[in-house]
Amino acid sequence: MSKLAGGALLHSVTIDRDSDVPIYRQLEASLRRLILDGSLAAGQKLPSTRELAQDLGISRITVTNVYDQIIAEGYATARTGSGTFVADGLDTEAFPRIRTPKHQSRTADVEISDRARALTGTKAAARYGKIDPFRPGVPALDHFPAKLWGKYLSEAITQEDRHGMSYGEFKGSLALRHEIARHLRDARGMKVEADRIIITSGAQQAFVLIAFVLLERGDTVWYEDPGHVAGRDVMQFMGANVAPVPIDDEGLDLDHAIRTQPRPSLIFTTPSHQQPLGTTMSLGRRLALLNHAQDASAWIIEDDYDSEFRFRGRPLPALAALDGAERVLYTGTFSKSMFAAMRLGYVVVPTALADSFAQARNLLGQNSSTVVEEAMARFMKDGRFVEHIRKMRKLYRARRDVLMQALATHCPDVLTPETTDAGMHLVAWLRDGVDDEIAHRALLEAGIDSLPLSVYCQTPFARQALVLGFSGVDEADISRLVRRVGEVLRTLPR
Ligand SMILES: Cc1ncc(COP(=O)(O)O)c(C=O)c1O
């Protein structure tokens, strides 16, 4: 008697309902693969169409059509009255395949560098995929002037000058670097020449370039804890000793770092709006940090990822604006102020480093598009960028207010939010005893995309919290969603 394929088959077939590939095609492909790689042996009986349809939660007609198809292709045969079977006599050994020992994952079986192996554990992949409400760092994409931006993109590609369709300029578009220099002067109090600006495909590429140009294996990097995950993982990947520095109410705790950590080569900080806690670094701390960096001959990364959005008063100028000694590498991104898919950012580097950065940008892959650079330069020159930021600042303040109100109404017993006067997210403390990772997963199942504070932490934090992004959620939906958050959190064990 043929063995029924049920268990093995059902565990190996996954249907992705969000995929653009139709379900019948996904199922066909899975069955072909299982037959070719020997997971389904010759003569083995396939589950009945009813059973498979039920287990996968798809229609029986779909399964029947798929079985008909793989029978027509010769992968299976139908025996009247007894069911569908994997075809006999298929020489599956003849098919090239990746041999994976059952007990090992594919990555473990292939020879890759130690560097690449160290990357397997990174939590920085959370930003990929579908966006659900409250994911931190997502702008109001529904309010982005997409048509207008399309016009700028189209002009950038149809201009007479065809140079713009090639690799562009060594440090990135000069026109864009001039616009960024002007913006940094007006908005961040920085006096920089376009020569010191290197265009990147986002802050992340800037971190990679910084680590590549400035770090030796084993160097110490002081890194805010909790802090930005993807930047931290880059430093670790480059072989640095990433030393956690806690945050106090003035920002990165400099005294603690001096007392407890080895001398740093590099210091990573988000002074305008600490990621994720939201603290603004005090002026005193800024000056002390700059002094210390100069004495220690250390470089500082100032990640100014969302400083455009401050809801009360004027922002403190950038740390880089106080930096008379050129120790600060200032990173900016358009992922928050425009949208992440444009992959555009920049790093302002000390004069002495500008050429090394341009060389590294060239050899490590010039990841930004010259066409997008040109479009952005014009968008800024015409005042569109400042106009968009102004609108978003107002909108995000309104969304923050609605979220705070909704949390007070629907979640007073389960979440205690920190007030925030800036940015795109807030931190909300969970009740004692509730694990933030568990809360995050339970909410994700309910379609709510908060992040657990623990994801940002190198060392365990005293309290558990959720990081809730408000910028990307329509005000009209916030109350209903927050009510749902409360319902889910009340079901969790303490
Ligand atoms: C703290 C911080 N820095 C920088 C970035 C921007 O990354 P990128 O410019 O590569 O999109 C993010 C985005 O998630 C962030 O949260």
UniProtKB/TrEMBL annotation:
Name of the protein in its database record: PLP-dependent aminotransferase family protein
UniProt record similarity statement: In the C-terminal section; belongs to the class-I pyridoxal-phosphate-dependent aminotransferase family.
Domain (HTH gntR-type) ranges: 21-89
InterPro entries given in the database record: Aminotransferase_I/II_large, HTH_trans_reg/aminotransferase, PyrdxlP-dep_Trfase, PyrdxlP-dep_Trfase_major, Tscrpt_reg_HTH_GntR, WH-like_DNA-bd_sf, WH_DNA-bd_sf
Molecular functions per Gene Ontology: transaminase activity
Keyword list, A-Z: Aminotransferase, DNA-binding, Pyridoxal phosphate, Transcription, Transcription regulation, Transferase
Secretion signal, residue range per the UniProt entry: none
The keyword Phosphoprotein belongs to this UniProt entry's keyword annotation: no
Gene3D superfamilies: Type I PLP-dependent aspartate aminotransferase-like (Major domain), Winged helix-like DNA-binding domain superfamily/Winged helix DNA-binding domain
Source organism per UniProt: Aliiroseovarius salicola
